[in-house]
């Protein structure tokens, strides 16, 4: 008879053991620092999301945090009575409730964020510097594999999806200008990914091909740019920043990250590069067009400050969709 103590530890055993360890560790840390006082953990998570994505609707919060609608409504009512949030109809869709932090709510969120940074800082203070990157990489691996099993989010919101294999070091990730063949790769991978994930037909490939061809044939390198995200020497993502028809406006186009490269923050990096470039060369606004089926993309855009300004139903790429226009002001306009 096999000795139970020598039994092979399955992933279930390891996950349960890690969960007990992590829960005890974080629980002790939170208790000793009174991390969330006077808020519960869920209340703190809601404040965090509102502070870091300031244009959220109640439906977005419910989806992002997997909260019951009734519970979230009561929680927001409590926050509103405490002067932490304000609720109002969303401008693009009055059926939705837009939630924003008040000055008092932002102070509360900032305090919780400061406590969290201090708590985590104390946790890793005794970890040798050489081991910290290994620790971070292991955490990215755990998060990525389990998120991938649970979700499988959309291509346009790649930062919050996952890679189902071991995570590379950050040094292995690179954003670069396109080289020979990369523009063709953008067309091919957009067509393949959206066909696989949403069933879009060849009309979408034709649209992408026209956009890429227009850029290749006539673009101003000082005002327009393409980024390729490279992982372990191969392209895994892209985004374009091009001039819009409206004066002083740039347009973000063709954001994509391959499924096996998600969970590394590449979507955030690609959008951030586009925003930084557009702001640096003097554009006043950055706009983009997307579709409602890319639900997780909304959170990513909101995280960078984009605001939904218009929606319109249409039939394209063999599907009934709702097109969405988003806008990010890059420079505050002077008041007269």
UniProtKB/TrEMBL annotation:
Among Gene3D superfamilies, the record links this protein to: 3.40.630.30, Winged helix-like DNA-binding domain superfamily/Winged helix DNA-binding domain
Where's the N-acetyltransferase domain?
A: 173-331
Q: Which domain of life is it from?
A: Bacteria
Keyword Transferase found: yes
Q: Which SUPFAM superfamilies match?
A: Acyl-CoA N-acyltransferases (Nat), Winged helix' DNA-binding domain
Q: Does the keyword Transferase apply?
A: yes
The molecular function GO annotations come to:
DNA-binding transcription factor activity; N-acetyltransferase activity
Provide the alphabetized UniProt keywords. Answer: Transferase
The UniProt entry, under CDD domains, shows: NAT_SF
Ranges for domain HTH marR-type: 1-144
Recorded hits in PANTHER family, A to Z, give: GNAT FAMILY N-ACETYLTRANSFERASE (PTHR13947), LD18367P (PTHR13947:SF37)
- Record-given protein name: MarR family transcriptional regulator
- Species of origin: Streptomyces kanamyceticus
């Amino acid at each position: 008879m096999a000795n139970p103590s020598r039994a092979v530890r399955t992933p279930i055993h390891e996950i349960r053991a890690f969960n007990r360890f992590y829960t005890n560790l974080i629980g002790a840390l939170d208790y000793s620092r009174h991390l969330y006082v006077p808020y519960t953990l869920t209340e703190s998570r809601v404040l965090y999301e509102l502070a870091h994505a300031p244009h959220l609707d109640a439906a977005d919060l419910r989806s992002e945090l997997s909260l019951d609608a009734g519970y979230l409504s009561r929680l927001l009512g409590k926050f509103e009575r405490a002067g932490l949030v304000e609720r109002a109809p969303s401008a693009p869709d009055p059926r939705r409730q837009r939630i924003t932090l008040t000055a008092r709510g932002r102070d509360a969120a900032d305090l919780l964020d400061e406590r969290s940074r201090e708590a985590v800082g104390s946790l890793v203070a005794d970890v040798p510097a050489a081991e910290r990157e290994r620790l971070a990489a292991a955490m990215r691996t755990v998060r990525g594999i389990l998120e991938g099993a649970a979700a499988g989010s959309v291509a346009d919101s790649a930062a919050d999806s996952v890679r189902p294999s071991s995570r590379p070091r950050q040094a292995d990730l690179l954003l670069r200008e396109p080289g020979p063949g990369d523009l063709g790769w953008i067309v091919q991978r957009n067509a393949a990914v959206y066909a696989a994930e949403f069933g879009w037909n060849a009309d979408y490939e034709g649209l992408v091909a026209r956009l890429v061809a227009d850029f290749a044939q006539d673009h101003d390198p000082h005002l327009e740019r393409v980024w390729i995200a490279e992982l372990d020497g191969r392209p895994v993502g892209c985004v374009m920043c091009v001039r819009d028809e409206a004066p002083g406006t740039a347009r973000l186009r063709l954001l994509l990250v391959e499924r096996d490269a998600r969970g590394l923050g590449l979507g955030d990096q690609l959008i951030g590069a586009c925003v930084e470039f557009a702001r640096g060369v003097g554009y006043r606004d950055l706009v983009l067009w997307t579709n409602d089926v890319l639900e997780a993309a909304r959170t990513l855009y909101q995280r960078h400050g984009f605001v939904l300004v218009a929606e319109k139903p249409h039939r394209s790429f063999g599907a009934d969709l709702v097109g969405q226009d988003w806008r990010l002001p890059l420079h505050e306009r002077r008041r007269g």
